[in-house]
Amino acid sequence: MSKKVEQWDKIRQSLKKEFTEKGITQCEVHLTGCFGAGMLTFAHRKKRRFYKNAEELGQFNEVVLACVNCHVKLEQDAELTKEVFENLRGQSNMADKKEKDKGTSKRAIWMKSHACIHCKKQNSGMLICPFCKKISV
After folding, report:
1. Residue (of 13, 99, 114, 104) closest to 54 by Cα position
2. Structural contact between residues 126 and 108, judged by C-beta atoms closer than 8 angstroms
3. Rounded to 5 degrees, what are φ and ψ at 43?
4. Closest by alpha carbon to 60, among 110, 22, 33, 34?
5. Which of 42, 84, 100, 108 gives 90 a disulfide partner, CB atoms 3.0 to 4.6 angstroms apart?
6. What would the pLDDT profile of 72-122 be if each residue is shown by its tens digit?
7. What is the pLDDT of residue 76?
8. DSSP H helical segments within the chain, as ranges?
9. Is the pLDDT higher at 46 or at 122?
10. Chain centroid to CA 94: how far?
11. Judging by DSSP bridges, how do beta strands 40-44 and 63-67 pair with one another?
12. How far apart are CA 95 and CA 76, in angstroms?
């Protein structure tokens, strides 16, 4: 087994523990054809080869838990990936200094008070709208 594979195995174990502690045990992405709690993988904000080191690869804000079907869809659509990560995790910790200096919040959109995009009712920081039961952002 290569050194990179061994590193990723350690990181993956750490991420599994962190996600379980946060109560994330099902696909977070929920695209059409989602498997829910089946066949889960970690999808990264950007291709793994673009991370400088193993520490960056294992940061919570750089990873979502996704079923295989949703993961494949993210891999195939960079704009969708960007949208999903901004909604679920906020800005990347890897953002360049210019972005940090703008004073933009790193909190994910759904973590803030917002109007649901479906029913337009005010939602106080929940990803799933309590009124229409759909993803609110």
Report:
1. 13
2. no
3. -100, 135
4. 22
5. 108
6. 999 999 999 999 999 999 877 665 433 444 445 566 776 677 788 888 888
7. 92
8. 3-21, 54-57, 68-76, 78-89, 97-101
9. 46
10. 14
11. antiparallel
12. 22
Judge contact between 29 and 70, C-beta under 8 A. Answer: yes
Residue 87's nearest CA partner among 56, 71, 118, 64 is 64
Among candidate residues 46, 53, 50, the one with its CA nearest the CA of residue 4 = 53
Tokens coding 76: 């195939």
Give the contacts of 115 (CB within 8 A, at least 6 positions apart). Answer: 121, 122, 123
C-alpha span between 67 and 30 (Å, rounded): 9
pLDDT at 25 over 90: yes
Which position has the token pair 């750490």?
A: 14
Closest CA to 81 of 41, 110, 45: 45
